[in-house]
């Protein structure tokens, strides 16, 4: 049995992985796939890939492209979610902020440097026409840290996945001022160079299994109720999320990677523009 370590966020996007693990689909291929939830998100997962603490990650596209551009010995081996991620822009429900435009010069909470919440704060600032060179940041590690920061006033707003934070909007902790969708496919599957080079066949089997699960995922009977119960979501929210979300079983396109690279470079978030061949890995 080959042991493989994989990490991802504890969110509804990753249920196909848990179902495949729980149903023994990887074990049937001789693979002990050991999943670890990383609530701190992409920044922490990039560190784990770089330091050899995991073999694979289900990770935000812009985060891993930035990390690889900075020397992380990792490659994107496949697109996972082809639809954009809907980043909700949240403030303390009791704050005086009423519109996104009022957040200019306000402090944004980010899980950590290089995280999706960090990078998308810059994308949103650019979209709003703000000066991205003077964006005030407050590192808060995870969603619980964001609740604390916005409640205490050490940060003013926080960007996180729309549906994951919806319960906090519903219970009056946060108020959502709007959304900022990623201008590219949101999640990819990444593997370290060492794993990609030494265990190509194992990686090929892993991708083969998960691609079967994701291609059939939306057709599973009552999958909306399963998701709602497992992730503490309202059924109508999950149904809307399912209608917006598309899984993919192929490599991400060079055009999408170029878009990410050019955006990060324009925002001064990376210093070097790698060719897509330096970002993408093949298991063929």
What does this structure look like?
There is one protein chain. With 284 residues, the protein is of the alpha/beta class. Helices cover 38% and strands 21% of the residues. The protein is built from eleven helices and ten strands. α3 (61-69) crosses α11 (254-266). It is globular, with a radius of gyration of 19 Å.
Order of helices and strands: EHEHEHEEEHEHEHEEHHHHH
**What is the beta-strand fraction?**
15-25%
Profile the largest sheet: 5 strands, mixed
The rounded Rg comes to: 19 Å
Low-confidence stretches: none
The count of DSSP E runs of length 2 or more, i.e. the number of strands, is: 10
Structural class by SSE content: alpha/beta
- Share in helix: 25-40%
Shape: globular
- Spatially, the strands of the biggest sheet line up as 2-1-3-10-4
What's the N-to-C terminus distance? 22 Å
Mean pLDDT: 95
The number of helical segments is 11
């Amino acid at each position: 049995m080959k042991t493989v370590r994989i990490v991802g966020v504890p969110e509804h996007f990753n249920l196909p992985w848990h179902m495949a693990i729980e149903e023994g689909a990887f074990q049937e291929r001789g693979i002990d796939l050991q999943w670890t939830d990383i609530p701190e998100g992409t920044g922490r997962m990039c560190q784990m890939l770089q330091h050899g603490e995991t073999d694979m990650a289900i990770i935000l596209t812009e985060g891993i492209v930035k990390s690889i551009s900075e020397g992380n010995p990792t490659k994107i081996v496949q697109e996972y979610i082809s639809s954009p991620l809907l980043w909700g822009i949240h403030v303390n429900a009791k704050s005086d902020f009423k519109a996104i435009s009022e957040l200019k010069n306000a402090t944004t909470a980010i899980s950590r440097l290089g995280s999706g919440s960090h990078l998308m704060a810059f994308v949103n600032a650019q979209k709003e026409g703000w000066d991205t060179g003077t964006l005030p940041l407050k590192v808060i590690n995870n969603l619980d840290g964001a609740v604390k920061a916005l409640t205490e006033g050490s940060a003013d707003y926080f960007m996180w996945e729309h549906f994951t934070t919806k319960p906090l909007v519903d219970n009056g902790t946060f108020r959502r001022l709007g959304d900022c969708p990623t201008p590219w496919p949101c999640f990819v599957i990444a593997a370290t160079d060492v794993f990609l080079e030494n265990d190509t066949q194992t990686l090929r089997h892993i991708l083969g299994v998960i691609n079967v699960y994701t291609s059939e995922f939306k057709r599973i009977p009552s999958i909306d109720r399963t998701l709602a119960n497992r992730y503490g979501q309202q059924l109508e929210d999950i149904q809307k999320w399912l209608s917006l979300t598309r899984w993919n079983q192929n490599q991400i396109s060079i055009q999408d990677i170029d878009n990410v690279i050019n955006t990060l470079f324009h925002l001064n978030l990376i210093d070097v523009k790698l060719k897509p061949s330096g970002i993408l890995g093949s298991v063929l």
